[in-house]
Every structure is written in structure tokens, then in C-alpha cells.
Amino acid sequence: MKNILLTNDDGVFAEGIEELAKILQKKYFVTIVAPDRERSAASHSLTLHHPLRIIKVSKNKYAIDGTPADCVILAINSILKRKPDLVISGINNGPNMGEDILYSGTVSAAIEAMNMGYPAIAVSLASYQKGDFSDCASIIDSLLEKDFISILSPKTILNINIPPFSINEIKGIKVTKLGHRIYTDFIEERNDPRGKPYFWIGGQVPEWSEGGETDFDAIKAGYVSITPINVDMTNYSYFLTIENWIKKEF
Prior knowledge:
Blueprint: E1 3-7, H1 15-24, E2 29-35, E3 54-58, E4 61-64, H2 68-79, E5 86-93, H3 105-115, E6 120-125, H4 133-145, E7 157-162, E8 172-175, E9 181-182, E10 187-191, E11 197-201, E12 207-208, H5 215-220, E13 223-229, H6 239-249
Parallel strand pairs: 1-2, 1-5, 2-4, 5-6, 6-7, 8-13
Antiparallel strand pairs: 3-4, 7-13, 9-12, 10-11
């Protein structure tokens, strides 16, 4: 029986991770290790300046008072008796597409697992208002039944976004690249009861640029989006520009 570690950034009691565990534990040995509260937009941060605590919630379910990346590190090094065959981060409540993956604790948890040498995927329900986590979980279960683990790379995670439709309405799966998010009214200023200003980072619902076989295009068209992600951010095409400048100036 394969050993699957589940984590997220929505918290150990989030509906998405509970629905995924409910379905997968029928066929796999599933352990949940997730933050004790919501840690959305925690990115790849680690807790370095205070101790971390492991709280056993129930059998094979643990809460950590840290970030999603902390959860993966503690799970693999201190909780699991057997190393995971797969790490799944999610199911996240809301999309993780385009530049948002840089902020996402969901995606970062999967990347941390990859950095430690374990196959990993990040899974998100691409809507905050609608959608069924049980349908999303069934889709992931179906992918695993088709030997999904065999195509995972030790240097790449797969970032999966699922449209907020029933299984029967989903048109299929598309391999996509990251889209581009367009921010408007990103910072919202308000006044507290004493008239003093405070600020919310977030603002209006984001818009997305269209075209080019992106994750957003796939979701909008009713397809599951799978985007391969690695951590090499080097812009190799820019090498020549810098080299030519060096030759000219030095």
C-alpha cells in the first residue's frame, strides 16, 4: 500500500484536505500533517525564531503551529514512520495560477517535498465561491488509479487546478503554462471605528490575461489544468545580453 502525505495552507481542519483524505484512505495509507490554522500566502517561509509544536489531532492526523513548508519538513523527519511515496498539498480553497504560485503556501509545500527528494503535487479548486471538494478529490483519486505517480519527476512538481464544475461537466485535462494575473485596486484602505486608517492587501477579484494555453484559459474553458513547475528561475535567454554588455564595458 502506497504511503501518501497530505498537507495544505488552509489548515488541518479545512474541508479540502478532509475530503481528499476521506477518498484516498480507502486505497492508500494517508497521513495528514497541516498547519493548525490558515496560512494562505505563507509562500515558502520557514519558522526559524520560535519552536514548533506537533499536536496529534487524531489517528494519522497532526497539526503544526507553523507554515506549510514546516509541516512537510516535520512530517518527513519526525512524524512519518515510513517515507511518503507521494506528497499532495491541497485541496486548496481557491485557485493557484500564474504569479500567485510565488505566494502560495499550497504550492510551496509541494516544492519543499520536491526539494527533499519526494514526488509532489499541488491541488487547488479554482474558485472561492463554488465547487465541490469531493468531486475534486475523486478526480485526484482517478489520476492516481491511472499510475499518475509514474510521470512525476524528482525536480518538478505538478500544479493542478480544477474548475468548479461537477465531474460530468469537466471537459478533460490540459497541460498548461502559467498565466498572467492583472491586479486592480490591490491595496484597499479603510478606517477603523476611531477614524484611523488601516489597509488590506488584496482588493478586487483579480483579472487574468487570456490566450497562450495558460492555466487560466484551461480553467475558463472547463478543463483541469496541470502545469509542471520547477524552481530554476534562471532566465537563460538573457545570458547573451549580459555577456555582450560585459564585453563592451569591461
